[in-house]
Write a structure and sequence with these properties.
The protein contains 15 helices and 42 strands. Strand 5 (70-74) and strand 6 (78-82) form a beta hairpin. Helix 4 (302-309) runs antiparallel to helix 5 (326-343) and helix 12 (748-758) runs antiparallel to helix 15 (794-805).
Length: 808
């Protein structure tokens, strides 16, 4: 097993990038990234560490000047001033040479005012507050700062040897990385990824809906539950089985029952057959592990691993869980985990409980467990995945992150969008939250519905709850309204997999996380920082989850959104908005604010058969948003192996000519690459939002030859749809209109009428208000008319104005 731990790294910096003295070494890794080492022994570390794997950046153009005070190292972007002594506040400073950062140099020891990264866990967190102790949740360091610089301290990391095993540093010293990227936040993350190793791709099944619950299921009840989801047409991709899969009621002499590796055969008489039935239903399976107590004498596997480890079986001496022991690690995997994987377990949920200390100085056992579990899951060319808590900078190499046991409250929901987006500041992009909350709290149908909506637009969508009989997250347990909405959104999650999978590759290949704070694209705009629960979702979408209850009377939830400059479309109600402004949005329970910018292209699929997520779809439903030109490249591969690292994939380019004043045109380019990975032919539905009625103007061509197509136009939403079937993926498919097909208009009065119709308020008030304002055409006149009515509810006035001014 240990051969799986060998990793490909390039830990030695280019010799030309180093400036060395007797007790110090400064490596200029990029114009904006500097490694600072000091060791009184003059010993410096070139092995990879827990965090840093690749220091072999290309040679950098910089100068070194010796002065009476020490040395000055200058790149185009940084000035390092150092007295060549032990690092001190007075003797080591770095100044950014770009405006407006010149007047705020960093001095060694300064407290860094970065925007923080993420935290190990949200256990016992209610919002951003601890519920069990006083104080706020403390986020770890990040790379993003409005001051333009951040520092990561790698001084106490353990090293990784050539054989892949860990070792203590050769001696104590300082080992810092200074990131002086100004407001070029995305480049800071990309260079961090190179330094630490790129985030790997996830298997395709990870992007579907996961079912998880801490509950004592039996084989019968679990399979019945899976079949109920199927009967209700709610797709699932992953079956998470919490700790009751194993023996938990054990003899007291062995201790507590949290740790276990033996199936409870009263609940699951034939585990292998059970797993086979789950696989037949299209589920990948993960089991919960709390491994801290090791392998004790009651476990079925005990005699085998006890013999290998040489413990006294007659005395029932336990096999201690020691992640620093090579021999134990070898047999823990080979004797305990691998046989269960052979029976059908796809990956493990490492629900760690052992703290942060180990037998090796400064080695966090959680990091070590994440490291070896992920690498072992990658054996035999498999694409690895694990589920475990965050263990510090570099954890992006071990997806997926389990954020712990949160409370079922509105405050908890409200915190999660910010927490997820902010983790991008330390490159950690694949958080999996307990969607719906795990424990305590209260039942609230609206809260559960909004949480599912957040989950669908999160990195991972995993429902979870405790074993409280009233905590179940099955959509049908929340009443008809909530069930309909949750079902629709969970189906949408599976429709979105082509988009999500492409964004996963973008994260691996280009260093762009799926979820990003708004300030990554708008670093100089104050509104990008103040709208903390709003985020970019891939290259094409902007999302603002609803995290507050509906307003009485209006029956709409209210949030404040900021739309950057440009033309934006609400992907659900199809309304067009002008950007570069902040305003209140109001949404009913069945929708949420998700916006696509003009020129956006979003590939979906109408094939959401959850029994074979391994298959690339033969039907694509592509949403395009007119008003600007756009480009998108769909990425596909075999979905499960590590062949993507060698470029074995298929790319399908898509080009939109959608600006006003041009002939509207959408082209799907011939697929390129390993075409055996995708169907030979595909059906396409192209849905153009912001379009005129093009039924008499649109033609469709495959390699220049006209093909039959079905056209539909919705006058209310200005959506034009074109459908074609059986198009070879090697063909160029062109949808072309004679003349400009852009229609940037809203059905204002129809939307206002619906708002008033649905509101629970006095009929005469509705009628009088609509009659008064529907005769006006200028939005300023409408605003004045609304303002004149002193008795009018302020939120009703604001909700009407959102519609009226959306495109004014």
């Amino acid at each position: 097993m240990l051969e799986n731990l060998r990793i490909e790294t390039n830990p030695t910096a280019h010799q030309k990038n180093m400036v060395c003295g007797g007790t110090y070494r400064i490596s200029v890794l990029t114009e904006m990234l500097v490694r600072l080492e000091y060791n009184a022994d003059g010993a410096f570390e070139d092995r990879p560490t827990q965090m840093a794997w690749n220091r072999d950046f290309a040679p950098v153009d910089f100068s070194v000047k010796h002065t009476e005070n020490g040395i000055e190292i200058r790149t185009k972007r940084l000035l390092v001033e150092y007295d060549e002594k032990e690092f001190s506040h007075e003797g080591l400073s770095i100044t950014l040479l770009d405006e407006p950062f010149k007047n705020t140099p960093w001095h060694y020891g300064d407290e860094i005012e970065d925007l923080k990264g993420t935290a190990r866990t949200l256990d016992t967190i209610d919002g951003d507050q601890y519920t069990m102790t006083k104080g706020t949740l403390k986020l770890g360091p990040g790379l993003i700062s409005r001051d333009g610089f951040a520092v990561l301290d790698d001084s106490i990391s353990v090293e990784i040897g050539e054989d892949g095993w860990i070792a203590e540093k050769i001696s104590d010293g300082k080992d810092l990385y200074f990131f002086g990227y100004g407001h070029d936040y995305k480049r800071a993350i990309k260079d961090f990824y190179y330094l630490c190793g790129n985030p790997p791709m996830l298997p395709r099944f990870a992007f579907g809906n996961w079912w998880s619950r801490y509950y004592q299921y039996t084989e019968k009840t679990y399979l019945e539950l899976m079949d109920t989801f199927a009967a209700k047409k709610i797709p699932l991709s992953v079956a998470v089985i919490d700790m009751d899969w194993h023996l938990v009621k054990i003899d007291r002499k062995y201790g507590a029952g949290w740790t276990g590796f033996t199936w409870n055969r009263e609940l699951f008489p034939n585990p292998k057959a059970f797993l086979k039935k789950l696989h037949k239903r299209g589920r990948r399976v993960t089991l919960n592990l709390h491994p801290a107590d090791g392998i004790r004498a009651f476990e079925e596997v005990y005699p085998t691993i006890a013999a290998h480890m040489g413990v006294d079986q007659e005395k029932e001496e336990p096999v201690a869980f020691d992640i620093t022991d090579r021999k134990f690690v070898k047999y823990y995997f080979e004797d305990v985990l691998h046989p269960m994987e052979k029976d059908g377990i796809n990956f493990w949920w490492m629900d760690w409980q052992q703290g942060s200390k180990s037998k090796i100085k400064n080695l966090d056992p959680l990091w070590m467990l994440n490291h070896i579990d992920y690498l072992d899951n990658c054996r035999n060319g498999n694409r690895g995945i694990t589920l475990s808590r965050y263990s510090g900078p570099g954890s992006h190499r071990y997806p997926v992150g389990f954020s712990g046991d949160t409370y079922i409250t509105w405050d908890s929901l409200r915190y999660q969008p910010y927490f997820t987006a902010n983790a991008s500041n330390i490159g950690f992009g694949w958080w999996s939250h307990d969607i719906g909350g795990h424990m305590f709290g209260y039942k609230d149908r609206e809260l559960m519905t909004r949480w599912v909506q957040l989950g669908v637009f999160s990195p991972i969508m995993r429902l979870h709850s405790s074993n409280n009989e009233f905590h179940g997250k099955e959509p049908w347990k929340y009443g008809p309204e909530a069930e309909i909405v949750m079902t629709r959104f969970m189906r949408l999650r599976h429709r979105m997999i082509p988009y999500l999978y492409t964004m996963c590759h973008r994260n691996y290949a280009e260093g762009e996380e799926l979820v990003q704070p708004l300030y990554y694209d708008e670093p100089e705009n104050e509104l990008a920082y103040s709208h903390k629960t709003e985020y970019r979702y891939g290259s094409e979408l902007l999302v603002l989850p609803i995290t507050s209850k509906r307003l009485p009377g209006l029956l709409l939830a209210k949030e404040n959104i900021w739309l950057p400059e440009g033309i934006w479309f609400d992907v659900f109600n199809k309304r067009v908005y002008r950007g570069e402004r902040a305003f209140d949005v109001y949404r009913s329970i069945d929708t949420m604010p998700v916006f696509a910018k003009a020129g956006g292209i979003i590939p979906l699929t109408d094939e959401i058969d959850d029994t074979d997520l391994n298959k690339n779809p033969s039907k694509l439903h592509i949403n395009v948003y007119l008003g600007a030109d756009g480009h998108f490249e769909l990425y596909e591969d075999d979905n499960n192996s590590d062949a993507y690292r060698k470029g074995k994939s298929v790319r399908t380019g898509m080009d939109l000519t959608g600006a006003e004043g041009k002939n509207t045109r959408f082209v799907i380019q011939p697929a390129k690459g390993e075409l055996s990975l995708i169907p030979k032919k595909r059906d396409y539905v192209i849905e153009m939002t912001g379009a005129k009625d093009l039924r008499k103007k649109m033609k469709v061509y495959a390699d220049g030859k006209e093909v039959a197509a079905e056209f539909v136009y919705d006058e209310e939403t200005h959506v034009f749809t074109a459908s074609v079937s059986g198009i070879p993926v090697k063909s160029q498919l062109t949808f072309e209109s004679k003349g400009c097909g852009v229609c940037l208009e809203n059905n204002v009065w129809a939307d206002v009428f619906k708002l008033l119709y649905d509101a629970e308020m006095i009929y005469d008030v509705k009628n009088n208000l609509f009659n008064r304002i529907s005769k006006l055409t200028d939005h300023k006149e409408i605003a004045d008319a609304l303002a004149e009515d002193e008795n009018l509810d302020e939120d009703l006035r604001s909700a009407v104005m959102e519609i009226v001014t959306a495109w004014q």
